[in-house]
Amino acid sequence: MGRFARAGAMVGALVLTASLALTGCGDDQKKPAFVANGQSADPSATASATASVTTPDTTSGSPQPDAPPLRVSPADGAKGRPVSTEISAEIPGGGKVSEVVLTAANGKAVAGRMRRDGSSWVPSAPLKYGTRYTATVTGTGTGGQTHRGTSTFTTMAKPKSMIGSGLYLFDGNTYGVAMPVVAEFSPGIPKKDRAAVQRRMFVQTDPPQPGAWHWVDNGTQAYYRAPEYWKPGTTISVRLALAGIPLSNGRYGNVDRSATAKIGRKLEMKVDNATKQMSVYENDALIRTLKVSLGKKSTPSSSGTMVVMEKKEHTVFDTRDEPDPRNRYVTEIDFAQRITWGGEYIHAAPWSEGVQGRQNVSHGCVNVSMANGRWLFGKTLVGDPVTVKGTEQRLAPGNGWTAWNMSWSQFVAGSALPVPDGGAGPAF
Predict the structure, then answer these.
(1) Can 363 be counted among the known catalytic residues?
(2) Of 56, 134, 162, 254, which is least packed with CB atoms within 10 Å of its CB?
(3) 25 is an active site residue
């Protein structure tokens, strides 16, 4: 019986813990490692050092005498700017930025691209600490005239107080259709900072699908998902561009993290306590029905929509630290698939095969036979959805990747930024 604990090794030496006690049959093991693959560039960024939006200059290519210079931000001479700084400009009388060129003091150009709404230009990688940069911005006024402006600014020294972050997505992996993008923070992001942080968390999908972010109450996690499960075959590219982002508590983001992953075929597992059976669907067609034994009344399984978070062909459940001595044991387990942080798994349980399909005897896990456990383990991916219904306990928010255990309207209510009807599109 595991507790609700998510302590684990985060790449970059981040360790997170939580203390909400929930019943589960598995051990209180470490979380899967976060992605920190050394990629700091935006996977969707172009190789160009200029904005991806260009507007032809209908003049000779030089500002007209009556076209005042535009105002660039950061302002000329600004010092101590965060390495997360974006470039923006104000065109006198209104207009549209058409080009941004950013160069470091050594003359090296910085790649980046314009946000889709035109509000700013985002470097494809964090700027360097303690470095001088020059931004040259070109824009077109409402009357067609060309405006230009230049600003030279200096970034801040590397701060001492940083916030840890992680990304539960591994570059190049294939996941199930319910795989949320999971960002994690230690300590949590204060509510007043979440909008600024969310603006720096970029997700793009191919084919395009709308989506939104949802923050858990304590700000330690944010999930990104679409209104429905991802389309099979989708490519998801993520950049958490948080290096150097300033927070109100005096901390700064530690690193940029990025990953590009694929979504595989559609597979769903649906467990009904009334029948004590699991129905397995592949591409919406029922392919097998399995007998199960769920948690007994004193240690019930959670009802709700969960996601396979990790898979272990062989493991050991060690629950000797449980407060209730009746729930302490050490047991070797085969074909284990974690679905909650609280210790609930789908796994083979040969000792309960005689009552599977008729009686609940587990410590909260979904027990299946050895043969069915082996078969199911070979079919599933991390990110496959598991829905359990009819038990005595409801799934607690945050006990696992619970992004799908709420309606779309409930999900978008947890966004720190407004979400258009149907979901937000990509930033670029």
Answers:
(1) no
(2) 56
(3) no
